[in-house]
Amino acid sequence: MEAKKPTTGKFGLIYGTVAAIIGIVFTFMLMASDLLFDPSPVKSIVQAIIFIVIVILAIYNFKKK
User: Disulfide-capable partner of 15 in 23, 24, 57, 58 (CB 3.0 to 4.6 Å)?
Assistant: First the structure.
């Protein structure tokens, strides 16, 4: 039997869902602490780092399989 190759759609769905959930939780944290409309660039940097880490994890796990 041949080993089944992983599909990018499966990984995209899984890690996209994880990124969306983390983004929603982060937004709720900002709302709860009343920092949602704060013009600080720190929150944008944190959001970008979270997104980049999730993308790197997805690529790493896809290549591993």
Answer: 58
